[in-house]
Sequence to fold (392 residues):
Amino acid sequence: MAIYGIIAEYNPFHNGHLYQINAIKQSDYDAKIVVAMSPNVVQRGDFALFDKWTRARAALICGADLVLEIPSTFALATAERFALGGVSVLDAVGVDRICFGSESGNLQALTDAVALLDDAEVKEKLKKYLSEGNTFAKARSLAVKEKNEIAAECLNNPNDILAVEYIKAIAKLGSKIEPYLVLRKSVEHLSEIPNGEFASASYIRENLSEQSLIDFTPAPAAELFKAEFKNGGFSNGLESLETALVLKLRTMTKEKIAALFDVSEGLENRIWRASREKSDLTGLCTEIKTKRYTMARIRRILMYALLDFTKDKMNSSLPYIRVLGHNAKGLEIISRKTAKLPVITSLSKARTLSREGEAFAELEERVSGVFALTLQNKESAKNEFSTPTIRL
Fold:
């Protein structure tokens, strides 16, 4: 019986995610499915729509067997670090295959792209294109294109980019996990147009209503999300904290801004100036952004400022595996006592493991505390330490 892993945000869990889980089960009826999921922050530089326990329960009632948390210091990061965090979690519990969506459906091209990214000539070309003011993603694609156009095309697709990073992370960790590809269908990653019962997560978030949840999320998950929606248990995102964000930035020195993760090449000066000229999130991002820096990167850095994610905190390695929820099959996986890292079901346990574990626990508590302030109904917030593990 193989154990399949999925790295996801489920922001929110929708019919496309159910399609992926069903694709695994159709190919392997006895498969066990482990999900490494983002917590209350997400990779694009924002807070999740629903809290992690709500999204974990949605995944479990829709076919997952075990949901594990990707710590915030990996979830709120570049694609490379996000992938490393997710693969590290899955590898630690003994996953056999990692299943990911792909626009190209070409595993060989993805593997070729990974190999070329380590090629000396490609690295030199990357420096050249970066010096011309291209974003990292664009420069990387252009550099690879000079050697392999098909592989380079993969680096222009959101899911394929993550797939490349997953394969890279597997190699970096020396993991025995095998890639397992599912062709992405129906709608693109950030599509603004639904296709039948399928819609992108961004479309659902931007058109959030009971009807959109009914139309584009599986029925069991829709009921769960609708209840949270009615109770105001959904996040209004980073925009709802823009005043607090500007206040935080205006009290920071340039040196403190420079200490934030992913701030380099004098970007702290642009951020410092923008925070004194603009008082809203859109204005901040527009003022800081250049051709070289993507909006997602700018938003992540602003989140780092709000949450105090400095370079030293973000470079810490994974100290534990945290279980958000499981069913009987998932319990079998974590009961094997073969995990490479301590497996915990309570964040309180993290404090007793090591100094690193205690630091991670304190950080997650801070993230959830700030996340709670973004909720439509702030009283609906769940406590990081007292919320129990989901058991189905």
User: Anything to note?
Assistant: Strands lie at 3-8, 32-37, 41-42, 46-47, 66-69, 97-102, 178-183, 321-326, 343-344, 390-391. The longest strand covers residues 3-8.
